[in-house]
Amino acid sequence: MIIDINKARWERNDELILKDVNWQVKEGEHWCLLGLNGSGKTTLLNMINGYIWPSNGEITVLGKKFGEYDLRELRKSIGWVSTSLQQKLYGSETALHIVLSGKFATIGLYDQTDDEDKEQALSLMTSLGCASLVSRTYDTLSQGQRQRVLIARALMAKPKLLILDEPCTGLDVFAREQLLGMINKVVARDDAPTVIYVTHHIEEILPCFNKTLLLKQGEVFDSGATEQVLTSDVMSRFFDVPVEVERRDGRNWLFVKQTEPLWTSS
Ligand SMILES: Nc1ncnc2c1ncn2[C@@H]1O[C@H](COP(=O)(O)OP(=O)(O)OP(=O)(O)O)[C@@H](O)[C@H]1O
Questions:
Q1: 218: CA distance to ligand 1 center in Å?
Q2: pTM reported for the whole predicted model
Q3: Which residues are CB-neighbours of 71 under 8 A, at least 6 positions away?
Q4: 157-166, pLDDT tens digit by residue?
Q5: Pairing of strands 194-199, 31-35
Q6: Which keywords, in A-to-Z order, does the entry hold (predicted)?
Q7: How far away, in angstroms, is 221 Cα from ligand 1 center?
Q8: Is residue 249 part of a domain?
Q9: CA of 135 to the centre of ligand 1 (A)
Q10: Nearest CA to ligand 1 atom 30
């Protein structure tokens, strides 16, 4: 079992942010975590990474039960690509250094790397279509290029679990499709980690994400096989608005069914 969460609760200032969340992620599965703003996705990820502790319930990640294990060690096996990581990196570092620093999970490259590390970094950058960027500094990269560099960085440590936290934020439709193509390749690799893809948008859910968890107001609204979760009926109840989900080439597209356009109602 990669993740085993049983009845996890998290309270803050008398407010229940996560309510008895159950989630089991098995080896070989790739999950999408879908929820609107404020539904508790980041809180749940912080819990999986051991940055916050459940007020109640139990969490086991990669076979390590929280409370009985050094979380710093556990975090080395988890890659987490997020916007907050982007903000912590040094813009003046080259893309290659950023990828290499993933080996030590450090911000900045302080440890020695050898030719083998460099070869691994270049091979990852090639497979993510960013080999031509090796000597470019991070602050000169576009958002889509940054995301590829960060995914390559996360893979440097050969994680068992890779969390892609809203990787398509800020991308135009073409950059988004390009990045999704790269993510598809990462997931298809023989040595692929278990991937959790976090998003607000069902259009981004690739067919390789065979499982989906819907989080609504801190509660698991539904979870299971993606094609069973992403139906018009489930999604209409999930969003509290009538919507239609259309499946095309294994991807799902969402249409909001309103008699009045949302943007004209007061
Ligand atoms: N440290 C905290 N103290 C108090 N409330 C918090 C704290 N962290 C999160 N919350 C609240 O918990 C709820 C869930 O927040 P969270 O960031 O987990 O949602 P999210 O699904 O990741 O949202 P988004 O998609 O906007 O990133 C929000 O109402 C938020 O204000």
A1: 9
A2: 0.93
A3: 49, 50
A4: 999 999 999 9
A5: parallel
A6: ATP-binding, Nucleotide-binding, Transport
A7: 17
A8: yes
A9: 37
A10: 38
